[in-house]
Amino acid sequence: MFTATSRHYVDRLFDPDPQKVLQGVIDMKNAVIGNNKQKANLIVLGAVPRLLYLLQQSCSSLELRTECAIVLGSLAMGTENNIKSLVDCHIIPALFQGLLCLDLIFIEACLRCLRTVFISPVTPVQLLYTDPTVIPHLMSLLSRSEKTQEYITQIFSHCCKSTKRFYLITVRMQALKCFSVLAYENTQVSLTLVNVLVDGEVLSQVFVKMMQRDQPIEMQLTAAKCLTYMCRAGAIRTDDSCIVLKTLPCLVRMCSKDHLLEERVEGAETLAYLMEPDVELQRIASTTDHLVTMLADYFKYPSSVSAITDIKRLDHDLKHAHELRQAAFKLYASLGSNDEDIRKKVISVYPLW
């Protein structure tokens, strides 16, 4: 009897009357709420391919397409086997395609379903990156509503907890770069990010772990930028330990001659931005790892031409000489913007420039 009822729900999806199809989807939505057995039966009976078909048809009404997305999201909230079945039916590219629609309610329904699918441990997170146009489009949707921000940040944050070593670094770096773009001068997004949990751990602490010395330099630097932008946006206090004890020292470390010129430029500019409005951070930075003296080395590029036999190195030094000087001046200006003692310290290293 139960299976016959389930089959009836699926059969109604094929009715030639669009209004009856819509009502059938609505009834299906009500039937699957909190009922994992009903969800499993509907999946076995082939409801998913039909729902996806209706969702993707431009001739379907927006109401029908939205209801289909809601039902698919409900099916995804069942068991892991449900998620596997949905992924096997190519639900992810279908929902990504749905995001191209202009209707906000439909977009939110698609994103909510995508969120549910992606936070499942059985969903391969690299599916987020199969189409290179997806990430930029997701980012463009952030400002549409609070719900789009919530769902998209949760999708991105899931990428940070992948444990499959083969693509771990690449996926995390892509997620980090997205976060840094999202958080820059955006208070609302930063406040959303700071409340995201990854396996019970706040996202800022995930970023802190990514700044550890045993992580790739690019990852350390990008994680520091994420926390810097969240701090400047007001989502993290300037006296928070993740800023004072982790982010600031990481950025100072990036300014040393042990790193590539490009990394030194990015590290200095990010550090200048972090501490620009905060006197205490300026004081701490001025006494960390001889930063003031370290910056004087930024003015020593390009190296003496007579000492360079490698033309490629000379070209590289010439290319970045201006960027290095500009970054050093920005950081010196930020360091000495409020404290007279720091200004005197900066002036004292002037002969070294």
General description of the model:
The protein is mainly alpha-helical and 353 residues long. Helices cover 67% and strands 1% of the residues. The chain has helices at 2-12, 18-32, 36-44, 47-56, 62-76, 80-88, 91-98, 104-118, 134-141, 146-158, 168-183, 187-194, 203-210, 217-232, 241-254, 261-275, 279-286, 291-296, 311-335, 340-348; strands at 197-198, 201-202. A hairpin with a 2-residue loop joins β1 and β2. α7 packs antiparallel against α8. The protein is elongated.
How would you sum up the global shape? elongated
Overall mean pLDDT stands at: 88
What structural class do helix, strand and pairing data support?
mainly alpha
Helix content: 55-70%
Would you summarize the structure shown here?
By secondary structure, the chain is mostly helical.
Write the topology of this structure:
Elements: H1 2-12, H2 18-32, H3 36-44, H4 47-56, H5 62-76, H6 80-88, H7 91-98, H8 104-118, H9 134-141, H10 146-158, H11 168-183, H12 187-194, E1 197-198, E2 201-202, H13 203-210, H14 217-232, H15 241-254, H16 261-275, H17 279-286, H18 291-296, H19 311-335, H20 340-348
Antiparallel strand pairs: 1-2
Helix pairs in contact: 2-5, 4-5, 4-7, 5-8, 7-8, 8-10, 11-14, 13-14, 14-15, 14-16, 15-16, 16-19
GO cellular component, one term: cytoplasm
Keywords: Cytoplasm, Nucleus, Repeat
Protein name: Armadillo repeat-containing protein 8
Feature tags:
single chain; 353 residues; mainly alpha; Leucine-rich Repeat Variant; 2 domains; two-stranded antiparallel ribbon; 2 strands; 67% helix; elongated
